[in-house]
Amino acid sequence: MTGTERENCELAIIGGGPAGLAAATLAARLGVETVLFDEQPAPGGQVYRNIEANSRETGLLTPILGADYARGLDLVRAFRASGAGFEPMSAVWQVAANGKVGISRDERACLVRARRVILATGAMERPVPVPGWTLPGVIGVGAIQTLMKASGIIPDRPVVLAGSGPLLYLVAFQLAKAGAPLQAVVDTSGGSLASAARQALPILAGFAGDLLKGLSWIAALKARGIALYRGGYLSIEGVSRVEAVSFRSGGRRIRIATALLALHEGVIPNNQITTSLRCQHAWDRTQLAWRPETDAFGATTSPLVAVAGDGAGIAGARAAVHRGRLAALDAAFRLGRISRNERDDRARADRQALLREARFRSFLDRIYRPSEAMRRLDDETIVCRCEEVTAGELRQLIGEGFSDVNQLKSFSRCGMGQCQGRMCAGTIGRLLADETKADIADMGQYRLRIPVKPLPLAELAALGNADRNSGPVLEVADGDPSQRI
Q: Which of 117, 258, 343, 349 is the most exposed place for a label (fewest CB within 10 A)?
């Protein structure tokens, strides 16, 4: 049965990465009628994107991407064998509090009503608003990795990677192995991985392999003669496209001419759907991002909805698997497939594993602070890429008395573009907090409107099963009639 024909299911899982795969596999094995919806043509998510096809090919792409990527094949195979339903190429544009899920597939929209929903939408790259970041030729480090995994595309022009976080060095190492013309890596985090690792050894017992892996990437880059810098205050130069990047390092300004610049300042939870549901969120002062408030099993303040994986707070792919399993156990309990005692007994191993992973994550969060993404913005720097709103324009509105993120959104159109605020929501909150000398946790979030993904009006008008799925077609939250259509 296809996504445009299915009208009901017990458990809908949104997202086919490690959390979604683990949740769907376990839930199906526990007897829950489970359907996984994902935008990609095959399961794997961003972390294990295209893993089945790449593993079948005889080329060198899988060895270049590494053993951690290759291990995703076991997750996908277990999911395929579990009996869970899979709806690929399905964009979810709505999740309502009553379990109604809006799907767009093959240029057709439909509604599927689920008794329980697990959001496994993962993370997104943190936007890095620095001067010149909107020039053609400036992309995210994650985009380079996506092109490698999805299509085997390797940059054929000089490239510089700049930012902080383990992904920066992983992708640099992968590019070097692939023979890409990697010019330099600019680490803006400021600290030394080696010295930080030595200081953290008492709390990192059992993670020697992870530490050595990261250090080996750096050593391999140095052995290949690739320039490694520690610096900050990035500025991107160019007229019609990127021409150079400059930064401060060792008390001097360094400029590198380049045709391609990839930025990365870590990742943040992709919480568009939980925001549209009006779930309670908390400002994570360690990861400097909003995350939905969840219990030990991922349940949110929306009664039918849980979050698994990095969407509930950044913890990595290994932790995402355990979070997915916990959310599946809770769903099976709530749907009457297992008892509370069985849920809790089965959950012990995953909860212990999560505690272990949290130790290493706290180390990564400490050494890879997103300094460039949190620095004071120049007035000319564009905050909202969709509507081309600058930091200076927002400061002017704040000076005129606008003290709420949604006021700024209404009067500047910042956040009203196609990305629905994905690229600017965090930045506008930070800018408002800086200008008003307030706590960013008090700034709140955009009141996100649905659909959370672009949906053609023609698909909405032709919604085939709206009459059979009672209630409004579009719904932000129960009890808010002004947001229903």
A: 349
Q: Per-residue pLDDT tens for 370-424?
A: 888 788 899 999 999 999 999 999 999 999 999 899 999 999 999 998 888 889 9
The reply to whether 231 and 273 lie within a common domain is no
CB 314 within 8 Å of CB 125: no
Residue at a domain's end among 366, 386, 413: 366
SS (H, E, C) 227-271: EEEECEEEEEEECCCEEEEEEEECCEEEEEECCEEEEEECEEECC
Overall size of the chain counted in residues: 485
Q: Is the pLDDT of residue 4 over 50?
A: no
Domain that holds residue 432: 376-438
Residues 203-220: b if buried by 16+ CB within 10 A, e if exposed: ebeebeebbebbeebbee
| 382 plus 434 within the same structural domain | yes
Q: Quote the CA–CA distance of 310 and 324 in Å, as a whole number.
A: 10
Cα 388 to Cα 301, 414, 415: the distances in Å are 35, 8, 10
Domain count of the fold of the chain: 3
